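pinging the channel bc i need a second pair of eyes. not urgent but kinda urgent?? the chain im working w is below, pasted from the shared doc
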Amino acid sequence: MIASILIFLIILSILILVHELGHFFMARRAGIWVEEFGIGLPPRIIGKKIGETIYSLNLLPFGGFVRLHGENTKEGVTKPNRAFINKGKSTRALVVIAGVIMNFILAILAFSIVYSVSGIPREGENVKIVQVAEGSPAEAGGIATGEIVKSVDGNVVNTTSRFVDLIEERKGEEVTLTLFDGEKLHEVKINPRGDPPEGQGPLGVTVTATEIYFPPWWQRPFIGIYYGFREALFWGGTVILGFVKIFTDLFSGFAPKEIAGPVGIFAITSQAVQFGTLALINFLGILSVNLAILNIMPFPALDGGRLLFIGIETLFGRRIVPKVEAAIHTVGMVILILLLLAITAHDIQRISQAGGITQFIDSALSQ
């Protein structure tokens, strides 16, 4: 349990620190005075000023923060030309969005590592049986998982779509499958069902032609980055659809069940640890995409909320009074904290009702 807590805190810290590093580097590049870069959250344990920035270690071990000169209001600004609030709209927008970009880069890197180590999936020419349903014609015919379908009634099979089409054409008729079990070829005569149960096909098998291959070592990082980018885009789309469903459920009067707070994420992290380092890195990538999408949402206190105010300023040609904007962001932060507490309480309740962390994870993944 202690190891899981430490790993959870490390993952959470990596996600937030990478995000804040995006703000830090872009602010420095834009000539904005970064007053402090903190690891953890205040109160401060120790701080050292290097150049013009204080680098601090703080008591609460959750991520970090960046404090920019003149971040919210002009009060206390001593270097007007280096204050965030006095910079142009495009500069402020770049500083705000840099954290989101860094989280996507982290996700791409995490997925790239997974693909580089575990191999690259590609479409092969062997259609393999990966699952046989109970009580199905395939089970009755003695078809086993792992066998490769070579032909259907003499017609060569080299893609899953070809296999499905041939079986669909012969529903209700006896067909002969030629299978390879890894040692020898054998034939099975079988009758595809004309009206299979829901979720099953005529034979009751699940097939795939996907195989894993390992490129030369010097190619793997480049190919891994390509597939990592695709994976990040896939999860980005999945997360966006998830948020759309959550808001749709809320407006329909239903409490969303898919949301997980810190306790839920800790539970899933604990499970990922048991599956090994690659599973943990993959989970880190998924969380990083989640954080990026969440942060870009146009809600006060989030990066997307700050971008929204910059957009309003661009649209109307004048900015909202800084004190008013700061107050709105403060209210937004309070709402987010209350929502986080509510989600945390909901997580604890779900874990308790599920009978433990493992049961909770199983139920969450099955939704």
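so The first strand starts at residue 34 and ends at 50. and The two ends are 26 Å apart (CA to CA). — does that match what u expected or am i reading it wrong
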